[in-house]
């Protein structure tokens, strides 16, 4: 900016010690146009400087999820979407607006701070209202945190049959031999500080929605005022001889075994160290590693005798507020069958980390009667041979693919087309295109097949989404004077 920023713009108003405040000139005003962002350095800290609606804002540049530089992401109105896994942050406040991150960004305040926990309350003495959360995964955690962020003063009890506090499950298939301590989402002090009770090694055996109680495997019974069911799914085991040998363990938690046979479960995929595989036909295939991907099954057996409505495959049906058919009973995460807004409210089930978190948040808001619909856009990532593939949208039923880049170069963007519209995108080494598509889908605007096809290069593709509020007209001017390359690069924008 042309003038030295005021202390209020780039200092930490939360800071206890005014001497820790930093004020630095970071750029010229003309360096940043409206709708743009850039990374600047203030006292050796990366800061994301944005200009939106004429207003300059500065928030942390490092995504609170896995630390991606947000300046390489996608800015749209008041929010920036991370290029790696799609977290969104409000550029004016640094608040998290879309998962999978769980923390907010510093808002050019405590510039030394890498992350910030959104302001949260605690239990209020005398408030007896009890929210019971079944499962200690992504959905339960975001529900608990949102309740406290929204100043819910009652009792929150999170119950899981695992022996670990909520942890980042997505790491299990990416980082082998990971230490359990390093993947915890929050530590015990956090739960104590915000009065969130976490009961470990306790399995729900039944739910009585008339009495509003849940019975556990240790014989205890807990009553609730409101209930979240988010016990997720588990991998289907391979039903073959040898699976029950003593030294074979299914690894879908952070547990790890150094036995003759090693298992690593990646969502629904099982990696086995083996010698050979015998097919039904009798054919023997020598193999060192076997990858089994035979799907997951819902952890919902304990609901079978309840009045909670389930699908034929035992997923729990919910509406767009994550209500089940029973009052005060909600479901979220991998176990929920829900109407997906971007798929014209088709009832589907999605096993994505970010979607489970988003649903946990919607549950909390609706528990508090802050009526809120689920409208998150699915965003998924996975790592294969060291490369991250990102995916957004809902591609089921696609009939065509529009490809940018080359598979062979390991740099591509695949746009999934159905009914002449882009319904999903997958990308490798093509950031922030997948985030750009997610952002466009989140605004409810259609990307037509024509738009997807016209755009030849990544930079134009990016521009297309950046200027999505404009009508795009491809004009071929002075064709005689242009090289073929220039012809396809010329693109003009006109206001609608
Ligand atoms: C190895 C692995 C890798 C993954 N990688 C990715 C990825 O890269 N990106 C992505 O988007 N998603 C990924 N996923 C999917 C993602 O982890 C899930 O979508 C997400 O965890 C679902 O959250 P949830 O809260 O619904 O359930 P979960 O996180 O599964 O939590 C459910 C909890 O409930 C507990 N529970 C079950 N039954 C009971 C009971 N009766 N009583 C008490 N507790 C019970 C379970 O033990 C579990 O702790 C991965 C999953 C796995 C397993
Ligand atoms: S690093 Fe930003 S969403 Fe994961």
UniProtKB/TrEMBL annotation:
The chain crosses the membrane at residues 460-479. The keyword Cytoplasm does not apply. Signal peptide: none annotated. It comes from the Eukaryota. Residues 24-119 form the Rieske domain. Residues 1-22 are annotated as: Disordered. One of its GO terms (molecular function) is metal ion binding. Residues 1-10 have a biased composition (Basic and acidic residues). This is Rieske domain-containing protein. It holds the Pfam family Pyr_redox_2. It comes from Astatotilapia calliptera.
């Amino acid at each position: 900016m042309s003038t030295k920023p005021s202390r209020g713009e780039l200092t930490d108003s939360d800071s206890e010690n005014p001497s820790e405040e930093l004020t630095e000139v970071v750029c010229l005003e003309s360096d940043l146009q409206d709708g743009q962002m850039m990374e600047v350095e203030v006292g050796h800290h990366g800061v994301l400087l944005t200009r939106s609606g004429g207003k300059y804002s500065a928030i942390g540049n490092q995504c609170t999820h896995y630390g991606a530089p947000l300046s390489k992401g996608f800015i749209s109105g008041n929010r920036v979407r991370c290029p790696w896994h799609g977290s969104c942050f409000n550029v004016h406040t640094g608040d998290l607006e879309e998962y999978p991150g769980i923390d907010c960004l510093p808002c050019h305040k405590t510039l030394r701070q890498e992350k910030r926990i959104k302001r949260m309350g605690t239990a209020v003495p005398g408030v007896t209202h009890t929210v019971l959360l079944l499962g200690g995964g992504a959905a339960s955690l975001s529900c608990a945190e949102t309740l406290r962020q929204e100043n819910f003063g009652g009792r929150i009890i999170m119950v899981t049959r695992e022996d670990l506090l909520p942890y980042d499950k997505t790491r299990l298939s990416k980082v082998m031999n990971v230490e359990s301590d390093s993947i915890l989402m929050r530590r015990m002090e956090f739960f104590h500080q915000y009065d969130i009770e976490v009961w470990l090694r306790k399995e729900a055996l039944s739910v009585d929605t008339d009495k509003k109680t849940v019975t556990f495997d240790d014989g205890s019974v807990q009553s609730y005022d409101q209930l979240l069911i988010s016990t997720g799914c588990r991998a289907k085991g391979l039903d073959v001889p040898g699976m029950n040998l003593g030294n074979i363990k299914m690894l879908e938690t952070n547990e790890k075994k150094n036995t003759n046979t090693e298992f690593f479960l990646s969502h629904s995929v099982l990696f086995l160290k083996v010698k050979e595989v015998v097919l039904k036909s009798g054919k023997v295939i020598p193999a060192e590693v076997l990858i089994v991907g035979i799907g997951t099954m819902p952890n919902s057996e304990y609901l079978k005798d309840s009045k909670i409505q389930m699908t034929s495959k035992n997923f729990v049906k919910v509406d767009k507020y994550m209500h089940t058919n029973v009052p005060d009973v909600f479901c979220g995460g991998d176990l929920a069958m829900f109407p997906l807004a971007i798929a014209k409210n088709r009832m589907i089930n999605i096993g994505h980390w970010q979607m489970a978190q988003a649903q946990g948040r919607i549950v909390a808001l609706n528990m508090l009667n802050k009526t809120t619909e689920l409208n998150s856009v699915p965003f998924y990532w996975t790592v294969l041979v060291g490369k991250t593939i990102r995916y957004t949208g809902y591609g089921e039923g696609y009939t065509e693919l529009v490809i940018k880049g080359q598979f062979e170069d390991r740099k591509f963007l695949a746009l999934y087309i159905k009914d002449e519209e882009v319904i999903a995108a997958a990308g490798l080494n093509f950031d922030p295109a997948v985030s750009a598509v997610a952002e466009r889908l989140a605004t409810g605007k259609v990307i037509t097949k024509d738009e997807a096809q016209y755009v030849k290069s990544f930079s134009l593709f990016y521009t297309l989404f950046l200027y999505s509020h404009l009508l795009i007209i491809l004009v071929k001017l002075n064709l005689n004077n242009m090289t073929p390359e220039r012809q396809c690069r010329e693109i003009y924008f006109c206001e609608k």
